[in-house]
Amino acid sequence: MFRKFLKVADACPACGEELHHHRADDFPAYLDIIVVGHVLVPIVLAVETEIAPPMWLSMSMWPLIALVMTLGLLQPIKGAVVAIQWYGGMHGFEEAKKARTASNGSFSVTAP
Ligand SMILES: [Zn+2]
Question: Which of 24, 33, 58, 99 sits CB 3.0–4.6 Å from 81 for a disulfide?
Answer without folding.
Answer: 24
